[in-house]
Amino acid sequence: MAESTRVSPEELERREKYLRAGLREVNLMDPFTWSYPMKGAGVMVGASLVSAHLYNMWNKRPFYFAIVPRLIAIGVMGAIGYGMGSLREHHYKTRDAVIQHYIELHPKDFDHFNDTTKMLDEAASSESSDAIARKKELLMQRLQQRRPAKQSKSGTDQAKLREEELTEVLNRAREQAESGVVDEETVKTLESFLSLEGCGWSAKRIQSALELLRKAGVGANSEGPQKSTFSFSISKKRNNSGSSGGTPKTTPAVPSESTSFIQKVSSDNAISLADLTGETRVVTGKDGNDVKLKEIRNCRLSFTFRPSTVHIQIFATAQQLRIHTSNELRLHVGVRAAVIIESCTNIRMAPYRVLFNNEPIEAPPGDAWKRPNDFDWLAEGQSPNWTVAPEEEWETAVVNSSSQ
Questions:
Q1: Hey, is 110 helix, strand or coil?
Q2: What are phi and psi of 358, to 5 degrees?
Q3: Where a domain ends, among 91, 110, 129?
Q4: CA separation (Å) from 269 to 136, 275, 287, 288, 308?
Q5: Same-domain pairing of 179 and 245
Q6: Residue 189 sits in the same domain as residue 254
Q7: Which of 172, 169, 321, 146 has the alpha carbon at shortest distance from 250?
Q8: Do 350 and 286 contact (CB within 8 A), yes or no?
Q9: pLDDT tens digit string along 337-354?
Q10: Residues 180-215: tens digit of each pLDDT
Q11: Do residues 175 and 93 share a domain?
């Protein structure tokens, strides 16, 4: 059995002197043995010399450049460091003196430090039931502190799961676009994701996927004339109402059957489309041709060329309306939530006013149509990309439908 080695009183005194500031032996080659004033002065002088050397290197100056002012500055910095070290040493000496004085005044309070048996007894008695209960309480507090972290982690996991689901839907949409077989459920899922995303990188990905699906599904739902006729007119005629570079789309409130498809090229190189309902069509032409749309309802049109101008007026009522990449467009809309525009210019807003079989269609309450949200305008104040049309320019669409 190993025996403990007792340290001699001389060794204890030597160690005590070494630990106390100002009593250890000084070795100039060992900065750890320096006193606090010497350490402070050495650090400040060293930092000053290094900064002076770096200044000379940066400005390409010789080492003796402004040597006298620099030596004075280095001396001042050394004196400041020496004073800081002296304050630190004085603090330690004062603390040691106070402790020693207290021990001399109350020696009985420190007798147990010299009695090893008492120290062991106290250590054994500390492991009582109260100590165990205290440890359990601390453990419960730590567990309570970890719960918010776990909840935040669960929120991160939900966002990650939603991102994985979106990626899966985008991959499925890409496969359907390549195969040419488009599933309506995929389109609805992407549109629901788009309504939640708003704008950003994810919204751009969803819009690109929807565009691929629309191109793949063009022409798949083309049908002949049905059993009803449909006419659409505007009480106040205008020649040029607006233009849109993107895919034009109109959405009136009352559904109707599809009618005949008319595409003709006028003498002014303008392609006219009229009397379309519930159609998905591909429009062919030459780059630079104008496109005139009239009496278009609930249709999706794709252009294989780059039109110069698309003349279109939109009458639509919806919960939320989104317009992308359009220029000089006139919107007669009624919405409950908001009108959202992105990458648009010269948009003119007007209220939704439609007569169906000589009866007015009720528009959603409120004036949300007057305050569209421009995703390209993040500053305060109104966006310059849209304005509210004067009241004398507000028009009423007249819709007539009769069964044959």
A1: helix
A2: 65, 15
A3: 110
A4: 86, 20, 10, 9, 10
A5: no
A6: no
A7: 321
A8: no
A9: 788 898 888 898 999 888
A10: 788 888 888 887 777 666 566 777 788 888 888 877
A11: no
